[in-house]
Amino acid sequence: MNMYDWNKYIYEIQQATSKQSEQIRLLEERIAILEKQIQENSKPTVDKIEYHFDQLKIERLDGTLHIGLSPNELANIDDLGIPTMQMSNVQQYPPSTLNQNLIPTLNNFVNQQGPEMIRSLSQKYNKPIDKKLEGDMIHDILGQIPNRIAFYEKEAREKHQFTNRPELESFIVDHIKKEIYHSLQRFMETTDSEEGEAT
Predict the structure, then answer these.
(1) Which of 23, 73, 142, 163 supports an S-S bond with 69, CB 3.0-4.6 Å?
(2) Ranges in the chain, pLDDT < 50
(3) Can you tell me the distance from the alpha carbon of 197 to that of 162, in angstroms, rounded to the nearest whole number?
(4) How many CB atoms lie within 10 A of CB 61?
(5) Distance of CA 40 to the CA centre of its chain
(6) 137 Cβ neighbours under 8 A, 6+ residues apart
């Protein structure tokens, strides 16, 4: 191999190395941009939600949230407070076959958007809610989700014609989300503000 060939070979290696260095730099920039986007998108956002639904009840500002009680059932309940809720008069439904799919979806909704909804409504109605009460309210809602799924599955099968499972699941999720928001709204509307203040 003569000197010209060696120079050409070394030049080609330098060019390849330079090209790879530039590709690495571009990839590092793209990774940094993607990481920034992931961090920004991981922050939960809550759009304004306005629902008018009569199936939710919050009995007291000590953290009790009751989803889906009818007016007759509410009239028969004396104390639904935390931590020992008396729910003997609340109709219980058998476990739903949709629980496996819908419970994680609704739990994520409650855990991610519930605190923001509580804070937003707390400000709107000037009803301060401390962190413990906020946690108790979220816990109450999460505990009632399986029964509400079963309730709406039963209602959907009796009163509505769904052609596929995604439509049925969407019906159930939408109605439970409406109940959750409306229950929080009713909670703020009907409770004395001083009972919810941080201690």
Answers:
(1) 73
(2) 51-54, 59-63, 69-89, 194-199
(3) 45
(4) 20
(5) 18
(6) 63, 65, 114, 118, 129, 184, 187
Q: Which of 183, 184, 179 minimizes the C-alpha distance to 127?
A: 184
Integer Cα distance of 180 and 136 in angstroms: 14
Residue showing tokens 């409406």: 178
Q: What tokens appear for 37 in the block?
A: 């986007």
pTM of the model as a whole: 0.53
The CA distance from 197 to 133, in Å, is 9
Residue with tokens 């923001």: 116
Q: Indicate the domain borders of the chain.
A: 1-43, 56-196
The string of pLDDT tens digits covering residues 114-156 is 999 999 999 999 999 899 999 999 999 999 999 999 888 888 8
Q: How far is CA 107 from CA 9, 145, 149, 156, in A?
A: 62, 8, 12, 21
Retrieve residue 63's tokens.
Answer: 């953290």
Q: What is the amino acid identity at position 94?
A: P
Report the distance separating Cα 52 and Cα 40, nearest Å.
32
Peptide bond connecting 94 to the previous residue in cis, omega within 30 degrees of 0: no
Q: Which residue, 180, 116, 187, is CA-closest to 152?
A: 180
Are the C-beta atoms of residues 109 and 82 closer than 8 Å to each other? Answer: no
Please give the single-letter amino acid code of residue 31.
I
DSSP secondary structure, 42-72, as one string: TS----------SSEE---TTT--EES--HH
